[in-house]
UniProtKB/TrEMBL annotation:
EC number from the UniProt entry: 4.4.1.8
Gene3D superfamilies attached to this UniProt entry: Aspartate Aminotransferase, domain 1, Type I PLP-dependent aspartate aminotransferase-like (Major domain)
PANTHER family from the UniProt entry: TRANS-SULFURATION ENZYME FAMILY MEMBER
SUPFAM superfamilies reported for this sequence: PLP-dependent transferases
PROSITE patterns for the chain: CYS_MET_METAB_PP
EC top class, as a word: lyase
Source organism superkingdom: Archaea
Lineage per the UniProt record: Archaea, Methanobacteriati, Methanobacteriota, Methanomada group, Methanobacteria
GO MF, one example: pyridoxal phosphate binding
Known cofactor(s): pyridoxal 5'-phosphate
Keywords: Lyase, Pyridoxal phosphate
Gene Ontology cellular-component annotations: cytoplasm
Name this protein carries in UniProt: Cystathionine beta-lyase
GO aspect biological process, one term: transsulfuration
Length: 397
């Protein structure tokens, strides 16, 4: 029988296919099945079980088989000791914060993060749980140094940051944090583990919204935290079993299936996004393009150091046009969909307007509104033509 040698150094692409898969014992199918049952048969003497534990299959909220297979794969792709999956990326982030932080702790986090991080830490955790928060531009490490305090427990960064693609130096921030006994979590969603592995760079946790590139097909939601087992056991007990943001077996299975092609998809996302970023940069009507793969990105050198082989599929750009023209431009697009989310097979565009509640935190050029563009897997030339025709129909070129 085929058996993957887990001690053998397999390449990323091979692990994306084989780790977490296996032969189903009952049918001998070479793909593991979806197990939708929410309860598992108890041992003869159930008193041996820990009801809030997760080691044995008891109840799907404590962890089910499809979740475990996916966790095994993700831990391997992130080069971490263990992974815990959640029902969404925000479930993973809130589970991490809820489990690690105690009342009186201080957190430093990036000015550019997924909006739920801002709301969770800055609006909920500080008012409900008395967690202190400081928001800084983490692309400059000096800003972090100035804010470290006795009670700083965690530095949370997102790189590239959603939606502006700001870059923070994972290795330097992790070294600084560890000198001060502070933990570091990195939201790795925009890069995906194919392009960037925060744990290899020294971070304690890599957080992913599986909804995005790892699933990659825009048809399910999930989240994951990868890190050392000692912390993940705590997160599993406190956040998964007791808060209950568990991933459904079906979604875990879909994400497992999507993740098989992540190396192939990411290569294409990287290539398409770079080509389109360069095209947009060549247009007079475009006020700026922000993409870590462009030399014009202020932190292109840091991005090159920590991201390889590419820079992901998300870019931001501005148009020298008014509000109505922004909407009109989007209405003329025929291939690119106007929708939130990112990392899908298809291209998605969203206008982030000047009414974003975090507008004051954005660098100047983003303040009047801009587009976040998740470049999909279509032929890049078709996408360029779609943009060009929409700009012509809007009288912008
Ligand atoms: C989408 C996203 C999340 C949240 O993930 P959900 O699966 O939508 O809950 C977190 N971080 C980043 C960077 C994201 O893009």
């Amino acid at each position: 029988m085929k058996k993957i040698d887990k001690n053998k150094e397999l390449k990323f692409q091979t692990r994306a296919i084989h780790i977490g898969n296996g032969v189903d014992k009952e049918t001998r199918a070479i793909k593991r099945p979806i197990t939708m049952g929410n309860s598992y048969q108890l041992p003869e003497d159930p008193s041996v079980l820990n009801w809030s534990g997760f080691g044995d299959n008891i109840y799907t909220r404590n962890g089910g088989s499809n979740q475990r297979y996916l966790e095994e794969r993700l831990a391997s792709l992130e080069n971490g000791e263990d992974t815990v999956c959640f029902g969404s990326g925000v479930g993973a982030l809130s589970g991490l914060f809820f489990s690690l932080l105690e009342s009186g702790d201080h957190v430093i986090f990036s000015n550019i993060t997924y909006i739920a991080v801002y709301r969770l830490l800055n609006k909920l955790f500080n008012s409900k749980f008395n967690v202190e928060t400081t928001i800084v531009d983490t692309s400059n490490i000096e800003n972090i140094k100035h804010e470290i305090k006795e009670n700083t427990k965690l530095i949370h960064i997102e790189t590239p940051g959603n939606p502006t693609t700001a870059i923070s130096d994972i290795a330097k921030i992790s070294a600084l944090a560890h000198e001060n006994d502070i933990l570091v979590s990195v939201d790795n969603t925009l890069a995906s583990p194919f392009n960037q592995r925060p744990i290899d760079l020294g971070a304690d946790f890599s957080v992913e919204s599986l909804t995005k590139y790892i699933n990659g097909h825009g048809d399910s939601m999930g989240g994951a935290v990868t890190g050392e087992k000692k912390y993940l056991d705590l997160i599993r007990t406190q956040a998964q079993v007791n808060l209950g943001a568990t991933i459904s077996p079906f979604n875990a299975w879909l994400i497992m299936r999507g993740s098989v092609t992540i190396p192939l998809r990411m290569r294409q996302h990287n290539e398409n996004a770079l080509k389109i970023a360069k095209y947009l940069e060549s247009l007079e009507i475009v006020s700026f393009v922000s993409y870590p793969g462009l030399e014009s990105h202020p932190d292109h050198e840091i991005a090159k150091k920590q991201m390889s082989p590419g820079f992901g599929g998300v870019l931001a750009f501005g148009l020298k046009a008014n509000h109505n023209k922004h909407n009109e431009f989007v209405s003329h697009l025929t291939i690119i969909s106007s929708a939130v989310s990112l990392g899908h097979d298809e291209s998605l565009i969203v206008f982030i307007g000047g009414d974003d509640e975090r507008q004051h935190l954005y660098p100047k050029k983003f303040k009047n509104g801009f587009f976040r563009f998740s470049v999909g897997l279509e032929d890049a030339d078709d996408l360029i033509e779609d943009i060009q025709e929409a700009l012509i129909k809007t009288d912008l070129i």
